[in-house]
Amino acid sequence: MDIPYEMIFKRKSFRRFDESLALSGEELQDIERQVARLIPLEDGIRVNYRIIPRKQTSSRRGEYCLLMYSEIKEHYLLNAGYLLEQMDLYLAAQDIGACWYGMGKPEVTHEAGLDFVIMLAFGKGRPEEFRKDYTRSRRKDLSVIWKGDSLMEIAEVARYAPSSCNSQPWRVYCDPHRIQVFRATGIRSIMPASRVPYYNSIDMGIFLFFLETCLAHTGHSFERTLFPDEGSRADPIPVASYLMPEG
Ligand SMILES: Cc1cc2nc3c(=O)[nH]c(=O)nc-3n(C[C@H](O)[C@H](O)[C@H](O)COP(=O)(O)O)c2cc1C
pLDDT class for 143, splitting at 50, 70, 90? Predict the structure, then answer.
């Protein structure tokens, strides 16, 4: 699936949808086709998707919701973030507004042995409603999230990844041939504390997709290693490491 890098700058969380606009049958079919082409972070985690009218969920936004169901297995939350972020960006390219909706619940939460994980609410937007100046979106200072002075052009873009409550749990240590990605703990937000690891793990999958899109765009090849879920008591928690060949 070819997702334009430029969509990183165009996407935003759509919270107001013009109810006079509607998706066409062809647009919905195209979305179904794209969903089947999403690239997983890790093979071997069974997932499934449903596109249903928003009114069949607790979401109050969008015309439809894309629901994701997954097998509960190591890295399934990272995988969910990585997969659905591809749709968030793809939809922006079609002038379809989307919003990750952590608060949303569908009627069916278990299906064919898979559990509901997260949804994206979406609906037709107008081109002018998308982000015009990404540098104005609120994000943490680079010095908080990125240590080391390598690959700053990548840091400058990857940091615009969306996250639950804009919590931006990613912390990166970067040297010229290795990027180490961690998840910060102790994130304070309006989410119940017990749910923070869940949503922040999805956020980390989103960030990995942004990071890899930036690496590919700048011609960096890499070898990714994922760390075991909650595999250490370290703070921040190691999530992934990228090795780049000496060039
Ligand atoms: C996993 C996840 C869950 C989210 N849940 C909600 C939500 O329930 N309601 C909402 O309005 N926004 C939600 N958001 C959107 C974030 O608030 C938003 O991505 C963040 O504030 C950054 O803004 P931007 O997406 O416009 O760049 C969620 C985002 C993520 C990644």
Answer: very high
